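Data card: per-record layout.
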Amino acid sequence: MQNPVPASVPQSIQNSPIVQKFSDSNKKNLYITVFAILIILAGIASGFFLSNLKKRPSSKLAAPSAIQTKNEVGITDEKTFKDSAEGVLKEGGIEGEGMFHLERPGGDSQNVYLTSTAVDLGSFIDKKVQVWGQTIAARKAGWLMDVGKIKML
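The structure for this 153-residue chain is written out next.
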């Protein structure tokens, strides 16, 4: 027994089958869609493969005048890092300027606030050191330096 179809449904819809055959244009659209999906998957796979290749170290990236010993680390470029100071390295800057500072005789006004793009200063905390760097503009710090080389005294 079939369910009665409401009178508001047009006759053309009442007689049409639920499953219809693909026309030639629908087949072409299906092929194009499958092809596009395969291209996208191939792109993702090749990107994943290329990103996981081991990167070979390049000698061009290393600083030609880099030094690393137990007591001294950094770049010996005296033209770039011509300023120097010495004191006891402490953690903390001043109002967002510098990550570290050198405590020097004469109180807080004599501190040199430090940041570094070339050296890990964290391994020299609470040690008396000499630093070489480039003075950079500061708003709060009396002296702000980008350290290129550090030596434990």
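Known properties of this structure: The beta strands are 66-68, 72-75, 83-91, 100-103, 112-115, 128-136, 144-152. The CA atoms of residues 20 and 26 lie 11 Å apart.

See the next section for split statistics.
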